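Standup notes, structure subgroup. Blocker cleared on the L-homoserine input:
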Amino acid sequence: MNPIQIGLLGVGTVGGGTYTVLKRNREEIARRAGREIVIKMIADTNLERARSLADSGVIVTGDGHEVTKNPDIDIVVELIGGQTIAKELILEAIANGKHVVTANKALLANHGTEIFAAARAKGVIVAFEAAVAGGIPIIKALREGLTANRITWIAGIINGTSNFILSEMRDKGLPFDQVLAQAQKLGYAEADPTYDIEGIDAAHKITLMSAIAFGIPVQFSKVYVEGITKLTGEDIRYAEELGYRIKLLGITKRVEKGIELRVHPTLIPMKRLIANVEGVMNAIVVKGDAVGATLYYGAGAGSEPTASSVIADLVDITRLHTADPKHRVPPLSFQPDLLSDTPVIPMDEVETSYYLRIQVVDKPGVMAEITRIVAEQNISISALLQKEASDESDQVSVIMLTHLTVEKNINAAIARIEALPVVTGKVFRLRIEELNN
Ligand code: HSE
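Run returned:
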């Protein structure tokens, strides 16, 4: 059989890795795919970089449109990123009847519905294993391996940069800014680290997983997103004292009222395996009704780990290239005309447990006032800790853990606590997930 011909858009970290791994494992991959997979064209605005990678016979261009229009190309691999030119080229490739592989989580989380519909109309595949958790085959697991299950929840450490920062803050007792600078120096965080540290990158990924798990459209605009920039070493230490570790989690859950979809720093019991995922590594727990909890761990970024996912998609498409489109795995696992309109519930209605750090003046009756408010809001306390004041200060931190309550109740309690004259400053709030049912 003729080789399947690939056009690569972008040869940065992941594109370069894809080229290298495809070349290195060419024979093994062909034995799996049933045909050779060859890179026929490379497009990159950095022509020098593209030329230095390309072997003879590979066409190099600075114009991605030349790839999407080339009738010899079977699959276009988009590794440019962003939501402008990448979107244009993907839609153009689809319109020209080409399958697409992309690692572009931001694009799919925002425009997935349009892109999947265009692909469906043309009978081509859009594959995106590399868009979520780098080298971990979580899309394949959710879409195929767990297909028997009614999935109840997913919780994942899906941003390596922020996990590295939290690990270093805890291990070395360093402040956020210092660890961020170190992450940038090591090349983990981008020069503009906003997407990583503000939870946006994780939100893109949990949006995609939520759609696949629950058969709902991709809806990035509905995710509640909170990053790690306000976390202090103090909170990390207090959480540890109470048996918890703080991780930036992407969480999606099926509950009675709809679907929860959120990203925020979260206290999780130290004894859970996922609590011990350190540094830039990623891990995702998926709970299915039949299988129970399953855990997926590995490199969430990097050249060859992410290339591993890109190439897995290339092999999948090569195997399915000649199959009737109706017999292929749908991009979101559920048949496109059977997606449900189950609502994503507003954050106010989410039920979880909370960690509150309250700065108070150390005098009689303060704790009684705070606990009265909490009781009046129908919130039950599960742990209470008062930290000793330093010699020079008359103020202390009160740490409170609550049982399950609805977010709007805790917000009301926080507003009332902040209004107390004995409370100084804002109440710092984090959410807790036990991840046990
Ligand atoms: N910047 C991401 C991370 C990897 O730090 O995990 C790409 O999504």
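Discussed briefly. Residues 43 and 61 are 5 Å apart (CA to CA).
Next: hand off to the docking folks.
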